[in-house]
Amino acid sequence: xxxxxxxxxxxxxxxxxxxxxxxxxxxxxxxxxxxxxxxxxxxxxxxxxxxxxxxxxxxxxxxxxxxxxxxxxxxxxxxxxxxxxxxxxxxxxxxxxxxxxxxxxxxxxxxxxxxxxxxxxxxxxxxxxxxxxxxxxxxxxxxxxxxxxxxxxxxxxxxxxxxxxxxxxxxxxxxxxxxxxxxxxxxxxxxxxxxxxxxxxxxxxxxxxxxxxxxxxxxxxxxxxxxxxxxxxxxxxxxxxxxxxxxxxxxxxxxxxxxxxxxxxxxxxxxxxxxxxxxxxxxxxxxxxxxxxxxxxxxxxxxxxxxxxxxxxxxxxxxxxxxxxxxxxxxxxxxxxxxxxxxxxxxxxxxxxxxxxxxxxxxxxxxxxxxxxxxxxxxxxxxxxxxxxxxxxxxxxxxxxxxxxxxxxxxxxxxxxxxxxxxxxxxxxxxxxxxxxxxxxxxxxxxxxxxxxxxxxxxxxxxxxxxxxxxxxxxxxxxxxxxxxxxxxxxxxxxxxxxxxxxxxxxxxxxxxxxxxxxxxxxxxxxxxxxxxxxxxxxxxxxxxxxxxxxxxxxxxxxxxxxxxxxxxxxxxxxxxxxxxxxxxxxxxxxxxxxxxxxxxxxxxxxxxxxxxxxxxxxxxxxxxxxxxxxxxxxxxxxxxxx
Length: 643
Fold this sequence. Notes:
The protein is mainly alpha-helical. Helices cover 61% and strands 4% of the residues.
């Protein structure tokens, strides 16, 4: 290689493009590479017209050289003209289908143009041609994330995790995917890995805090976010300090924590922060406070659909249904996500004003959009989980001799979603020294931990094989794990309300044989209607509901036929129509004297992060009993008549 060419490359690497242009012009006859380097240099100094003339001359002279078209296309990408870059980069890969750099550049071009599907295809092609280049996979994962396909984005980035090319940014990206996916049990091991290896990275601590809040591990969230806050410079991030205050509120409800959050909002009035605070106040029933924020000129974000939807929800909660409906109908349906959210909000409003046919139409619209977005995946996942539990139960022997000895007093509230589990929990929260574990995954986490520990044996069979001492150790480990959720040190009773814990009664009997288990039942037609009205449930039709409902209770029935663990069945309709007598029976079953009830539960607000969050703050009411009858002409519930 000539010394002139080496000097030219050195100038290029140093970024001194003006000097490079002069050097190339003087020496372009000494090396063929100068004729390629010269237009590139002109492009770097934004002289695109001169660069284009040189590139076009090269394209005529070398019509089969993909490098010419590639560099010309890159120039347009760098100056923000992807529409001009696209035909050049397409020509690049047509000339050489194995040109992985060209495919990656074409992917970036499609990305700039907003053509995400084509970008993903191009990035995947680049990576398949050069799997040793992690940047190609990162580009693909990032584009999948932009499109909201967090599951595929996570799968893409997983190829880099725990490998020699893993970086802290890959780990943070994966944590962000997990957060968007709403962390599930299988992700917990990775979360712990990320924390153990990259705890010095602020984003790792932040996402661990957010994910802990999602999983309702509020003590753990407080620990991580407090550490992060202590090492943050001023001004501190709203996301950190507001979520820390929220976690503290969930452990120890206090107006002071809410005041703190609102104060932080004044300092960081961004739309996502407004949504965070208003959503919290609305869920706590503080509608005046929520509206005050929404109507504050400082927080006005014209045309923001999420804020409009939230404002409609607050107005409806205040009893202003017509204003809420007008707010929703003013939203232009610019995308299907907005349409779906509007439809679910309209269901409640139309029903609230007695427009049942309009409410039913909103149910059908919401179901159609939800089905298009998620398909049958949630129901299939639910049914697969039940089938695996059912299969494990079929293999069990009836030997239930050994049980753990635990002094912890548990109350497990189980049942199909929307059967009244949150309502009952909210009433038990009024008992002194009761700690509420509201919809945690602690028991299902334990089940998966036993899957790993058992060496391939089904968890139920494994736990049946253990002696009293071994079971007591697992019970103690489980109780210790609850310390990540809330402070249970002074609890006389631990109320664990998670509907799906009904699938794990075998574990409850073996580990906590003195536990009180309450099974909520409700007319399945009302349960089905309630599920159809809730986006979080993601059941979109009567037949899918029937399959899920029957599968769940088939497992419950098997438990009740084989286990010695007493289960109190509580009928929702009886609880709301004869509350005093029914609740007294529940207290007798648990072993609590009615005098232990707090004088005034209303002195302490509780936040219920479930579809029932609005209902549980109201007085006991019976308007939801036989509500399905109002929809009889609109929705056919006959398939549920005899289940």
